[in-house]
Structures
1.
Amino acid sequence: MTLLTVDVGNSQTVLATFDGERRVGSWRVTTAPRATADELRMVWRGLLRDTEVTGVAACSTVPALLPSLRQLLDSLDVPVTLIGPGVRTGVPLHVDNPREVGADRVVTALAAHELFGRDDDGRARPVVVVDFGTSTNVDAVGPGGQFLGGALAPGLEVSLDALASRAAQLRSVELTCPPQAIGKNTVAALQSGLVLGFAGLVDGLVTRISAELVAQFGSTPVVVATGGLAPVVADSCASIGPREPDLTVHGLRLAFQRHQAQASR
C-alpha cells in the first residue's frame, strides 16, 4: 500500500509517498495558486510515474487552490482525507478560535507529538515546533498532544523580498549564513540581518514559549525545526534540537490513519 501525502503551502507544495510509516519518496514543487485540477493531476502523475497510490491525505493553506484540489481528490478511486475545519485529527485545539488554525499547523503538531513527544525514558513532554516557511511559525504542543497556539512571524524570503522591493539601494541576495555578524559589504550585511537576525528572533521566542511551557507542565520541551528554509537558519539557532524537514507530511500520514480507523468503526 502506498499513501500519497500532499501539503499545499503558499510558496511550495510538498508531496511524499509512504509505505506504512516509512517515507519512500518526497518532492517539492512551486505552488501555482490558479492551477486547474487537470494541471495538478499532470504534476502528480509526472512525479509519481508508475507508483500505485492506494490513499491520499492532503491539506492546503491556499484558499484559491482548494476548489481545484477538491475536484481532483473527488475524482480519485482511493480513500481520501482532506484536512480542514471539521475533520477530526485527534489534536485538541486549546486556542480561542479553533477554526482559525491552519490545517498544516494542526497536522504538524500531531506529528511533533507522535515523533518527539516523549523523552528517552518514555515520559511525555511538550514540543516546540519551529516551521521555517513562507511564514516563520513557532508553535507549542502540550505533553498530551494538544495544540496550544504559538507565534507567527514573516518568513525569510518574504522579508528579503520586502527589503529588495522597498529599499532602492538593497537587492535580493542568496540566503546563506555569513561567516560573521558584522557584514563588510551590502550582501554580507543583508545575510547577517536576515539569517542571524531570524535566528535571534527564533531563539528569543523559543526561550519565552519554553518558559511558559515549563511553568504550565513542569517539564522542558524539545525544540524541533521543520520547513523548507530550516537548513538555512537552524544551524544558527542555539535553541533548536532535532530537525525533520517534512514534519507536516508525517502529520498527514498520521491523520489519514486516524481518519480511516474512525471511518471503519
Note: The longest strand covers residues 22-30.
2.
Amino acid sequence: MDTQKRLHENISALADGELADSERELALAALDTAEGQAAWRAYHLAGDVLRDQAGGALSAGFSASLAARLAAEPVYTAGAAPAERAGDPSAPAPDQAESPADVILP
C-alpha cells in the first residue's frame, strides 16, 4: 500500500475515532501538513453530510449555475433513429436493442 493512501486511511480512522493507538503518532504527524489538514476537513465534512449535519448554505448563484449546466447537457431520446446516432461510435448497431443500462452505464 502506498504511503499517501495509508496516511489518508489513518486520518479517516482518526476522524472516526477508530484509529489504533499504534498508528496515532503517524496520523498526527500527517496532520501537520497542508494535505493532511485538507484530508481532515474533507473527512469531517463527509461525516457531517452523512449524519445530515452539514450546516452550509448553497452559494449565491448555485441554482442558476446548475440550471445552465443541465441545459447544456445533451438530450437523450429513447428510440432515436440510427441517422441521429451516426456520429456516436458508442451507439449500438441499428439491429441491437438499447437497454436502459446501456444509457446509464458506460
Note: The mean pLDDT is 78.
3.
Amino acid sequence: MTRQEILSELKKVISPYTTNKEMLEGIDDNTDLIRDLKINSANLVDIIIDAEAKYDIEIDYDSADKMVNVGNCIDVISEKLGQKQ
C-alpha cells in the first residue's frame, strides 16, 4: 500500500473526529492532529482504534505515542502493514 493510498484512507478515518474539514482536505505529512485538525486526545485514541480495525493491525503504545502528525501516522501504519506480510 502506497503512502498516498494510506493518506487517502486515513482522511476517512480522521474525518469524524475533526471539525476542521477544510484543513482535512489539504493534509500532508506535517499536519498536526491536535494543533491543526483540533482533535482532542480522547479522539486520538478513537482514531488509533479505527486505524487498527481499518488496516487489521495492532498499534502498540510506543507506536501510538508517535502518531501526532499525519506523516507519523502513515509511517506507523506502513510499518505495521509491513510486519503482517
Note: The CA atoms of residues 35 and 69 lie 9 Å apart.
4.
Amino acid sequence: MKTVIATTAAPGAIGPYSQAIEANGFVFVSGQIPLDPATGAFVPGGVEEQAEQSLRNLKAVLAGAGCTLGDVVKTTVFLTDMGAFAAVNAVYAKYFEGDCPARSAVQVGALPKGALVEIEAIAVKK
C-alpha cells in the first residue's frame, strides 16, 4: 500500500508526480528545487541560496510525512555544475550532522525551470 504525501509548506509538484510517497515504512521524496512555496519563484541568489531552499523544501515534505531529516537514509544531489560541489556541501552539512545519510552527487545537463541544484531523499519512518 502506498500513501501520497502532499504539503503546502513546500512547492507543489510541477508535473505528474507526487511530492513524496510513503510505502512499506519508507518515504520517497521527489527532487526538491529552490522554489519558494509562498511565491512559486526561485529564491534570489546563487547556488548556496538555492541549496538552502531545496533543503528547506525537503525538510517540509518530510515533515508532511511525519519524518525529520534524521530519518533520511539516502539523498541524491543533482548539480548543473560540479564546480559548485564544495559550496553545496557546506550548506548540506548544516542540515545533516552526526550519522549522515548515504549520498550521491551528480552533475546533470539541466534541471527543471533552470535550477542549479535539486535534492531528493529516502527516509525511514520510525
Note: Strands lie at 2-5, 20-23, 26-32, 72-79, 102-107, 117-124.
